[in-house]
Amino acid sequence: MKTGDELSDAPREGLGGAEPAQLLPSPQVDAEGELAAGAEPVARTQWQLFRRRFFRHKVAVAALILLVLLYVCALFAHQLAPYDLHPKLNIDVLSQARKGPSAKHWLGTDELGRDQLTRVIYGGRISLAIGLTVAIAATVIGTLIGMIAGFFGGWTDQGLSRFTDLVLVIPDLAVLAIAGKELGNGSVPVIILILAALYWTYLARVVRGLVISLKEKEFVEAARASGASSFRIIGRHILPNCVGPITVAATLTVATAIITESTLSFLGFGVQSPTVTWGNMLSQSEGTVGTHLSYLIYAPGLAILLTVLAVNFLGDGLRDAFDPQSKH
User: Which CA distances in Å does 36 have to 3, 19, 32, 42?
Assistant: First the structure.
C-alpha cells in the first residue's frame, strides 16, 4: 500500500493545470506510514501541494529568508544605514579615513572616511533593483514571444525563433559597454533596458518548447473543440502549466543581471559614481588587494556572492516544488 507522501506527490493532469483540488489521503496513518483502514481521502489544492514540497527544501527556505532580508534592507536603506551616504567631507570625517572594522564602523571606512556598511546597504538598493526589474521585464518578453512562437508555429515560429537566435549570439557585455556609454553614460534605466532586451532569449526558448508539447495534449484539443479562441487557450490552459519553469528561469535571471551589472561596473562601464552599487564599490577598491585596506573588497564581494547563491538555491527549491515527481 502506498504511503501518504507517495500518493500526494503523484503527477496528475487537469484542464490546463487549473484543477482546484487533488484527492489525497488523510493524515490518519499508522506507525509505518501506511494509510489507516477506512481513512477518508481529503482534497488539497495545487498551492497546498506546492507549499508543502517547497518548505521541505530547507536550503531554499533559508535562501528565501536571506533574499527577503536583503530586499528589506535595500528598501529601508535610509532608516537602517548608520551614517549618511554622502557625508560632508570635513575634518571629523576625513580623520576616520582608512580605518578597519571597529565598533563604530562595523565594516571599516574607505579612503574618504565614508562608512563601508552604509555604502553596502545603499549599493544593494541599486544592484537588487536592477536584478529584480530585469527579471520581470525579461520574463514578460520571453514568455510572450515563446508562447506565440510555440502555439502558432509555421512562419510565425520560424521568424521568432530566428530572431531569438540572433539576439542570443550577441555578446552582451560588449553591447552593454557601448550602449551604456553612448545612450546614458551608465545610467540605471539604460542598463535595465539593455539587460532586459538581451536576457529574454533563454526563457523564450524554454517556453516555446513547453508550448509545443502542451498544445498536443487532450485538454487543449478539448478546449479547441469547444470553440475556445487561441488566446483563451493560451491564457487559461497552457500558461498555467508553464508557471513552474517560468518562475525558476525568472529567479535565475535575477542572479545573472546582478552579476552582469557588477561586472560592467567593475570594468568601468556600468553605473557611475556618485551612485553606489556593489559593482562600482569593487571597482573603486581594486587597488587595495594585498594591502591593509583589502577589507574594502570583502563586504561588496560577499554581498554579491550571498545574493547569487541565495537566488540559485531558491530556484532549485522552486523547481523541486513545482515538480510533483520530485523526491526531495
Answer: 10, 27, 10, 13
**C-alpha dist (Å) from residue 2 to 35, 44, 173, 327:** 8, 18, 53, 15
> In whole angstroms, what is the distance from residue 265 CA to residue 268 CA?
5
C-alpha cell at 87: 557625508
**pLDDT of 21-75, one tens digit each?**
444 444 454 444 444 555 565 667 778 888 888 998 899 999 999 999 999 999 9
- The CB density around residue 54, as the number of other CB atoms within 10 Å, is 17
Q: What CA–CA distance (Å, rounded) separates 139 from 147? A: 12
pTM: 0.79
Is pLDDT of 216 > 80? yes
d(CA 199, CA 204): 9
Nearest to 183 by CA among 196, 168, 167, 194: 194
Distance CA 131, CA 192 (A): 8
- Which pLDDT does position 134 carry in this prediction? 94
Owner of C-alpha cell 487561441: 230
